[in-house]
Amino acid sequence: MKAAVALLLVMLFVAFVDATTAAADAPGDLDAFAAANGLYDDGAYAEAARSYERLSALGYEDASIYYNLGNTYHKQGDIGRAILNYLRAKRLSPRDEDLTANLDLVRTQTVDLMESTGSRGALADLAGALPELSANELAATALALWAAVMGGVAAATIGPVGRSRRIAVSVAVGASVLLAFTALTMAGRSRIDAELDSTAVILDESVQVHSGPGVQYATEFEIHAGAETELLEVRDAWARISIAAPELQGWVPNTTLETVLLSAIP
After folding, report:
1. Please, which residues bridge with residue 43 across strands?
2. Residue 131 has what DSSP assignment?
3. Non-local CB neighbours of 188 within 8 Å, separated by 6+ positions
């Protein structure tokens, strides 16, 4: 009986976390968000983009805002900013199928088709192979499993000997295994998020990549809007980036790109 009560408490806790997460996912200023959506529906894409950007500048970090921003820029033919905002949305809502489809579509329209660098490590590959959960969702899952472990242990400790105690022990053991697996997945998710945070998207239509931080250095190659690069370092007004593989890198003006993580470039 006590084991059943413990399980009921865990289920209520999970429901509470889900409701809290859903509330947190709502855009901060609903009136301003609705007004921006109206501009988009009317075909005023430039004005809609400015409205969504204002919401972002006010500190509202929401997948819906970034997803709609990506759509407005795509409608205007701004491939770089479309990809940038789709990536920002994906960081917050990794399972959104419409978002993934739009991002994949826009990527096919870039001049530079970037190749995968291969494995990101065992933990990251594990997290990437599973149904994608955000960091908050994984944390909520871990808390719920931890509560199940504690509830099972408590019920097994103070409960009567018999079937109820065996059930409580099974709950505690099963939840412990799932908790360990969730912890590994969280570590992998953290690595994926860190990789995404260091991603910088080229915004200018065409950018010359130099061998050093200045126009006086030789031009190594050219890169175009929408290319997803890794930001390695920033030196004054220049950024060193890596493209597709560590050996292919160079310097570009830091005004020609923007990182998925806001304010990563001074």
Report:
1. none
2. P
3. 121, 122, 123, 124, 125, 126, 127, 128
Q: What is the pTM of this model?
A: 0.67
110 and 92 within one domain: yes
The helix (H) or strand (E) run that includes residue 181 is: helix 163-197
Q: Are residues 37 and 57 in the same domain?
A: yes
- Assess contact for 90 and 103: CB atoms under 8 A: yes
Q: Which of 176, 196, 216 is the last residue of a domain?
A: 196
CA 60 to chain centre: 15
Amino acid sitting at position 240 = R
Cα separation of 2 and 162, whole Å?
12
- pLDDT, tens digit, 9 for 90 and up, residues 179-233: 666 665 555 555 555 566 789 999 999 999 999 999 999 999 999 999 999 999 9
